[in-house]
């Protein structure tokens, strides 16, 4: 049996890496990047296994699901009011059912509560759904809120939005189907006297209402 020059151990000994971890005989790689494909750790807050490797695909095939078999999440904190319902129904009429609902294998609804309510109001009996796979019960519950919250963290490029809405409006597209309102503000009362008209007021300004937060703003000038 051959001996190691430093510790006198034979070939059967497991060599140590420079960082103190085990080498190839242990089947695990050491280093700053973590372990191999099965690597992962647990969240200190939730105790849920979190992967440090490649992002997994957690959705499966699209299936048609009878609406009566879909179970909305009772603790969903997102409120879908009458105005949004009207707009979602208009969207279904204009674009069709484009984005499937997200459900788990048991039919629990994860994302798409508002559009499901609109589909029911439109008399649909079955809707397309994507199956979420590999989520724990805790992750499923958390994703219901993450799907809503993460979309709220984006913002509008108002100049780009103004250009796009103007272009769509010039094509006679009903922007209300996309969730936008274009309103012409009331003009000030005429006091009977001729007033100089500022050059900037010769063009009618329109207010744009954000479909997510309901805020209204005046579109910015076109880019040069």
Distance between the termini: 81 Å
Largest sheet: 4 strands, mixed
Mean pLDDT: 75
Alpha carbon gyration radius: 29 Å
Query: What is the approximate shape?
Result: globular
Count of β-strands: 9
Structural class: alpha+beta
Instruction: Describe the strand arrangement of the main beta sheet, using strand numbers.
Output: 3-6-4-5
Low-confidence stretches: 5-38, 184-192, 197-205
Strand content: 15-25%
Number of helices: 4
Helix content: 10-25%
H and E string: EEEHEEHEHHEEE
Description:
The structure is a single chain. This protein has 224 residues and is an alpha+beta fold. The protein has four helices and nine strands. The strands form three sheets. The protein has a four-stranded mixed beta sheet. It is globular.
Q: What is this structure's SSE topology?
A:
Layout lengths: L39 E3 L6 E3 L7 E8 L15 H14 L5 E3 L5 E3 L1 H9 L4 E7 L4 H16 L5 H13 L11 E2 L23 E3 L6 E2 L7
Parallel strand pairs: 4-6
Antiparallel strand pairs: 1-2, 3-6, 4-5, 7-8, 8-9
Question: Summarize this, please?
Answer:
This protein has 224 residues and is an alpha+beta fold.
Which structural traits does this protein have?
alpha+beta, 3-stranded antiparallel β-sheet, 4-stranded mixed β-sheet, 224 residues
